[in-house]
Amino acid sequence: MANEPARNPRAPLTPDEELAWRALARAVLVIPKVLDGELLQAQGLGLTEYSVLMNLSEQPGRSMRMSELANAVMISASGLTRVVERLTRQGLAERVKAGTDGRGQLAVLTPAGLARLQKAYPTLLAGVREHVMDHLADLDLAAFTQAMSGIAAPEMGPPVRRTPSLASLTNGRQHEKTTGPQGAGEPGYR
Predict the structure, then answer these.
(1) Per-residue pLDDT at 10
(2) Residue 96 main-chain phi, psi, to 5 deg
(3) How far apart are CA 19 and CA 13, in angstroms?
(4) Three-state secondary-structure class, residue 185
(5) To 5 degrees, how large is the angle CA 24–CA 26–CA 31?
(6) SS3 of residue 188 by DSSP
(7) How many CA atoms lie within 13 A of 54 on its CB side?
(8) Where are the domains of the chain?
């Protein structure tokens, strides 16, 4: 059948698979931007800052090693350093040496940071309900959660960043691999 999932990893996507893939890819890009904009407008706090505060609030002692926090928030270590520095200037977090080895750094949520998180939570909750949960109302949430957890499994680690050497490998031209109908169902380049 045309829309039956292919078991061969190199087989072209079925029309339904293509639609699902494109919808997921768009949602993964759009939802964080929409939530970030709403948080910034209503609370003066970005989604990444909110995620840092939220992750710290869920940990014992409301603290976390910077490297682990970067992985949890899915940003680079240097990106997290900049976010934690901003939060520290606002009195919402602190950065301290880890007591266990003295080399590592911990990010620590302050009481003001917890209060700020609690103030921002209703804005995020409203956005998540409107932009995500309302659209999933007729789905089996347990199956959806299991599928999404498999797609973005924690063991996949932090995001991979592009390296400048890509341009030198392609003579200065960057090629973007696509999954669209390029002919004979094969992935193309543009």
Answers:
(1) 86
(2) -135, 160
(3) 9
(4) coil
(5) 95
(6) strand
(7) 14
(8) 15-138
pLDDT of 122 > 90? The answer is yes
Q: What region, left, alpha or beta, does residue 79 occupy, with left being phi > 0 and alpha being psi -120 to 50 degrees?
A: alpha
pLDDT at residue 184 is higher than 90: no
Which one-letter DSSP state was computed for residue 109?
A: E
Helix (H, G, I), strand (E, B) or coil at 117: helix
| Tokens encoding 159 | 């995001």
How high is the pLDDT of residue 190? 29
Q: Is the pLDDT of residue 176 over 50?
A: no
Provide the CB-side half-sphere exposure for 156 (13 A, CA).
Answer: 10
Q: What is the pTM of this model?
A: 0.76
Q: Distance (Å, rounded) from C-alpha 84 to C-alpha 110?
A: 12
| Helix ranges, the chain (H) | 15-43, 47-57, 66-73, 77-89, 111-131, 141-151, 165-169
Higher pLDDT pick, 186 / 111: 111
Residue 14 in tokens: 């079925």
112: amino acid identity, one letter: A
Half-sphere exposure at residue 10, Cβ-oriented, CA atoms within 13 angstroms: 2
15-138 CATH, one of 2.30.290.10, 3.30.450.40, 3.30.470.20, 1.10.10.10: 1.10.10.10
Residue 112 neighbours by CB under 8 Å, 6+ apart: 90, 91, 92
Provide the pLDDT for residue 161. 56
